[in-house]
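User: Structure please.
Assistant: Input sequence and predicted structure:
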Amino acid sequence: MDTQKIKNILENDGVIAFVTDTVWGLGCLPTSKKAVERIYEIKHRDSKKPLILMSNDIEPLRKYVKPLTEKAEALVKKYFAGALTLVVEKSELTPDYITSGLNTVGIRVPDNKVFAEICSCIEGNVLATTSANLSNEPPALTYNEAVKYIGDKVDLVVEDYGEKAQGRASTVAGIFPDSIKIFRQGDVVLDV
């Protein structure tokens, strides 16, 4: 993997497509408002739909969110890395342009070696992400689909090196002081 090329693209407001454990994703540095805006343009995505933050480990994500509750910590311990996105209260560090002005942000650590390597080559180890597809179209599940759907719109589609997406989206769960709300049921089934 040409990590230097990936790093250069991302540091220059670039957008890349990559494999994860669930579906293919699009991502950029969370500090690049220009790149985040490009992701919305590429996907024709409603600006009211927030992006999520993903990393190769929970630790780099912690600065973007308020201290996690006991329940959230238990879910992190059990399901990260894996197909669970936790929606939690964001910290001051998370820009409004990522969260569509909401005071929460989704965080996830995919269980995928290629994605982990991408994160480890960038400063901060975190990407602002969404699925690799046009809005209301099915997400890309293979390298060829990613190239076909959005290859001409992004700066790079990273090879999957044999790491396949499983094809089911992550479960999205909001962790609130008194409850857990399932926004999207995916691979991980939570007992709430």
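The CA atoms of residues 54 and 108 lie 5 Å apart.
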